[in-house]
């Protein structure tokens, strides 16, 4: 508000001609850290973004250093930043984000996975996954015969219950890789060793909000298998029916 008034005074404008009150509320909610992510906020004219955008971005970076973790955000390209911020730091339903950005669910989920990989938080709820699904996949990955090997998705899928889909597996791999390190996911036999216990100080992805699971449709053609992002299975735990869109390739 102070910045808006200052800009308005300097340019001889009414404050609403810089940013409306709704614009300010949306900026506070989405906390854009790039011009592109600012431009994704509905209702801000491109001319105002061009003229006043840099000042707003600087203010957001200064005011929300801890919440947005600017140093991590800057490792992402501007399009992924926009997706992550519209997800309200990994808590917003991704169908809404895809609609707001006019992107496919496939693209939005991949953006979120990239954010997870560099250490930005994301709840299972934004993917529609339950804690149960996370735990099932995690146990399969860390138990024999895989013992932490995540180099291929198919062997993991074959060892999971039928309701587990490739999209779930990809999200869990990203979370485990961020927690333990790429190619360092421990097996059940060694994850409790003194060496592995040093990871206890890292973010615990199991302590995140849960919600109904996303289940995708599997393509059974002779081509490489793909799973759609959202669908339902009668064998799965209670799940929320969402849109379907192709996502994971084998």
Automatic annotation (TrEMBL):
Keywords: ATP-binding, Helicase, Hydrolase, Nucleotide-binding. It holds the Pfam family HRDC. The keyword ATP-binding applies. Residues 1-70 form the HRDC domain. Residues 196-219 have a biased composition (Polar residues). The keyword 4Fe-4S does not apply. Residues 185-237 are annotated as: Disordered. It comes from the Eukaryota. GO terms for molecular function: helicase activity; nucleic acid binding; nucleotide binding. InterPro entries: Helicase_HTH, HRDC-like_sf, HRDC_dom, HRDC_dom_sf. This is DNA helicase. The gene is wrn.
């Amino acid at each position: 508000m102070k910045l808006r008034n200052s800009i308005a005074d300097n340019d001889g404008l009414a404050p609403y001609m810089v940013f409306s009150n709704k614009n300010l509320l949306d900026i506070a909610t989405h906390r854009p850290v790039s011009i592109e992510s600012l431009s994704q906020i509905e209702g801000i004219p491109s001319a105002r973004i061009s003229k006043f955008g840099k000042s707003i971005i600087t203010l957001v970076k200064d005011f929300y250093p801890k919440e947005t973790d600017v140093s991590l955000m800057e490792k992402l390209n501007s399009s992924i930043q926009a997706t992550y911020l519209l997800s309200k730091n990994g808590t917003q339903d991704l169908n809404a984000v895809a609609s707001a950005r006019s992107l496919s669910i496939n693209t939005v989920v991949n953006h979120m996975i990239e954010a997870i990989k560099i250490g930005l938080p994301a709840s299972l709820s934004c993917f529609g996954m339950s804690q149960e699904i996370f735990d099932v996949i995690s146990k399969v990955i860390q138990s024999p015969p895989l013992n932490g090997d995540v180099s291929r998705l198919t062997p993991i899928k074959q060892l999971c219950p039928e309701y587990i889909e490739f999209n779930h597996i990809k999200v869990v791999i990203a979370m485990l890789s961020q927690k333990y390190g790429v190619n360092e996911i421990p097996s059940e036999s060694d994850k409790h060793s003194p060496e592995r216990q040093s990871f206890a100080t890292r973010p615990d992805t199991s302590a995140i909000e849960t919600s109904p699971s996303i289940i995708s449709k599997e393509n059974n053609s002779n081509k490489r298998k793909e799973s759609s992002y959202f669908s339902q299975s009668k064998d799965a735990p209670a799940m929320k029916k969402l849109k379907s869109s192709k996502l994971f390739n084998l």
